[in-house]
UniProtKB/TrEMBL annotation:
Native organism: Streptomyces coeruleorubidus
Matching PANTHER family: RESPONSE REGULATORY DOMAIN-CONTAINING PROTEIN, STRESS RESPONSE REGULATOR PROTEIN 1
Protein name: Response regulator
Pfam families from the UniProt entry: Response_reg
Superkingdom of this protein's organism: Bacteria
Keyword flag Coiled coil: yes
Modified residues (4-aspartylphosphate): 55
UniProt keyword Mitochondrion, yes or no: no
Amino acid sequence: MVQKAKILLVDDRPENLLALEAILSALDQTLVRASSGEEALKALLTDDFAVILLDVQMPGMDGFETAAHIKRRERTRDIPIIFLTAINHGPHHTFRGYAAGAVDYISKPFDPWVLRAKVSVFVELYMKNCQLREQASLLRLQLEGNGKNADGEAKESAGLLAELSARLAAVEEQAEALTKQLNDDSTDAAAVATAAHLERKLTGLRRALDALEPGTGSTSSVSSQN
């Protein structure tokens, strides 16, 4: 069963969090609240998130400072951040948001349909990455099992390789369709770049699987790539 992605909502005003939950509930993902930058950083210590919606104007640690902490952590630096702000201070303010690591910058009041569409793109990319990690984990288990009973497990290994290849092909097809959709819709450059990064990872995994086919060489060189 595919697990739901987690989306972190960070805002010091309860009514704003409630509004975000109402807008994003249609995505049928897990929405996690944080009423401050400190609370958001605490949530990020234990959970993985597909995307963060971060209010800029907060007492204490504001959105810029919170984003800076998120980007300094190796565990969280790649999580997309969408800044939400009720104040438009012009290009300089927007630039500061992108410099802090945001992939998008939306002024309130925002269009619910636009926000939901932007978030859904990053949720879909996150899901594809999760599928990729699952395939890589299965591949590692296969590599570790090789050599224990080579003769007795030859047929079982071939069957597992075929299953992995089929699963990877399905993910490759979905990733290709997603990339085409992003390019056709002229979506944010950050989303397009993330999709391209995912396709590169898929290409590497495909090479690893191809190298495991009989007659293509030893598995030791493959395992060193993972």
